Amino acid sequence: MAGAVSGFEALPRGGAAAAFDEVEIAILRSLAVQLLELIGPGDQAAEEEDPLAALFAEGPSEPPTDPALARLFPEAYASEESEELRAKSAEFRRFTENDLRARKRADALAVVRGLDELSPRGDGGAVLKLTADDARHWLGALNDLRLTIATRLDITDEDESGELYRLPDDDPRKPMVMAYLWLGVLQETLIDTLMP
Q1: 25 and 115 in contact (C-beta within 8 Å)?
Q2: What is the b/e burial string over 98-124, where b = at least 16 CB atoms within 10 angstroms of the residue's CB?
Q3: Cα–Cα distance, 143 to 162 (Å, whole number)
C-alpha cells in the first residue's frame, strides 16, 4: 500500500504477477490468516480418511450469527418470507456449506502459502507470480477479504465507498478502508489478467 498501487499484471504464458513490499506482504498475510480464523478449521482428519464421506457430510442448517460469516455464507432463499423457504434454505446450507467453507479455506491458504514462498528482493519486497489456478484461489480470497471488511465497515453498496475516500486520517476506520480499497485494486487487476 506504500507508494503507487499497480496491482497484478498478466504474464506472457498465462497467470499473473504483482510486486509487493514488506509491509504489503505482512498486511496481506495477516488479513488472510484472520480470514482463516474467521472461517474456522475444517475436519481435515475426516477428509483425509474418507474424502467421499466428507463430501457428503452434513453441515450446519442455521445461518452464522457473525455478520461477516453471514455475508460469506449467505442464505440461499429469503427465508423470512415463509416456513417453507426457511426449511429449503436450511437444507441447502446443510448440504453446501461444508464444501463452501473448504473452498474458502483453500483460497485463503493459497494466499498465505504464496506469500510465505516469496523470495525477497534487495529492497525487501518481492514479486509474486501466480499460475492461472493460483490466480483463481487468490481471486476468491480477495473477494472474501473485501466482503468481510465491507461488513465490518457497514458498506452495503459500492456507491457508499466514495465517502470512504474522505475519511479524516484520525478516523479509526481509515486503516481498514485503505485495506478495502487496496484489495479492490488487486482484485480488479487480477480479474483483468484472467480475461481473454
Answers
A1: yes
A2: beebbebbebbbbbbebbeeeeeeeee
A3: 19
Distance CA 134, CA 170 (A): 37
Which residue in 147, 139, 156 sits closest to 191, CA to CA?
139
Q: Note the pLDDT tens digit of each residue in 41-67.
A: 866 545 556 666 655 666 777 788 899
Do the bridges between strand 126-130 and strand 16-20 make them parallel or antiparallel, or are there none, so unpaired?
A: antiparallel
The pTM assigned to this predicted structure is: 0.85
DSSP-derived letter for residue 79 is: T
Cα–Cα dist 28/107, whole Å: 13
Tell me the one-letter amino acid at 70. Answer: A
CB 114 within 8 A of CB 141: no
Least Cα distance to 191 among 146, 125, 126, 127 occurs for: 146
Cβ(20)–Cβ(125) below 8 Å: yes
